[in-house]
Design goal:
alpha/beta; Rossmann fold; seven-stranded parallel beta sheet; three-stranded mixed beta sheet; 9 helices; single chain
């Protein structure tokens, strides 16, 4: 009996010791497992943070503003069928190495939205807007839409706008070629906050010019190209960017009429090759001879309005 009791006692001790060792092993295993999981969590968190940092860095690099140069947007007038001079000017601009595209006047909201989207993605451009008749009116509507988003417009050239539009504060310069005696042309007025240059060039002072002919003048095309070249390739993000609410201030402002300028006043100051009298290439010299005379020679009595249709 004593032997059996001794064996049971020894067995019990052995079992107890083995249980203790097993418990220690299980505790060590669980501790290691918890530690491994914790470290894996830290590693995953660190990796996630690193990925966030890398993504932000890529986004920052992608959003870095870059200037793509000048883009001229030409807007046709009524029904896109009368303002063929805008198509001719588009061809001349592209042949001169100036990026240009021609559109219907009703497309200006879509064009403005595309420019604003690129601007927000850091793709900047020198926006130049040229239009004839209703397209000239749309130039100022488009500029105002761009101004509401903080996008500047260094230059607008209007060919015989049919309404007394106002210039928003995000525009750098406006040249308005119009005739006060053809029954349709109208001067442009300053809007609130506008601090740029406004040249209303009344071509009736140089002789009668029709509403449907003004956009086709080689002499005016030549001057327009000179104005575009005069803005250079400066960074529009710094030279012509305004606060997003600037356009709203223009909308409710009382416009101020601008005194008519002579052709000399409208000539680009930094473009010596395009003086007030318009220097043309040999291929357009003949057309220049038929161009209207200088604005300073306007007679005191205006001629009767033209019977031509409004674009």
């Amino acid at each position: 009996m004593r032997r059996r009791a001794g064996k049971c006692l020894r067995f019990g001790k052995t079992f107890a010791i083995g249980g203790i060792k097993m418990m220690r092993f299980v505790g060590f295993f669980l501790t290691a497992l918890v530690a491994t999981s914790f470290m894996a969590g830290l590693t995953g968190e660190a990796r996630a943070q690193q990925e966030i940092v890398v993504a932000q860095a890529k986004k920052t690099r992608a959003a870095a503003p870059r200037n793509t140069g000048t883009h001229v947007y030409l807007l046709r007038g009524f029904m896109d069928i009368f303002s063929t001079g805008m198509d001719d000017l588009n061809v001349k601009l592209n042949r001169s190495g100036i990026r240009a595209s021609v559109h219907g006047h009703a497309e200006y909201p879509t064009l403005a939205d595309a420019i604003i989207d690129r601007h927000r993605r850091g793709i900047r451009e020198n926006v130049v807007i040229i239009g004839h008749s209703l397209g000239a009116n749309a130039c100022f509507e488009m500029a105002q839409q761009l101004g509401q988003a903080g996008v500047g417009v260094p230059l607008i050239i209007a060919y015989d706008p049919t309404a007394p539009m106002t210039v928003s504060s995000n525009v750098g310069r406006v040249v308005n070629f119009y005739s006060s005696t053809n029954g349709w042309g109208s001067p442009i007025m300053r809007g609130a906050g506008f601090r740029g240059t406004l040249n209303n060039v009344d071509l009736s002072r140089r002789g009668e010019i029709g509403h449907t002919d003004i956009d086709k003048s080689p002499a005016l095309h030549s001057q327009s190209i000179g104005f575009i070249r005069s803005i250079g390739s400066g960074n529009p993000s710094t030279s012509a960017t305004v606060s997003p609410d600037a356009g709203e201030k223009v909308k409710d402002a009382a416009p101020k009429p601008e005194t008519n300028a002579t052709t000399k006043d409208a000539a680009p100051a930094s473009t010596a090759s395009v003086p007030a009298s318009t220097t043309l290439s040999p291929s357009t010299a003949a057309a220049a001879a038929e161009a209207p005379k200088p604005a300073a020679e306007k007679s005191a009595t205006a001629t009767a309005p033209s019977s031509e249709n409004k674009n």
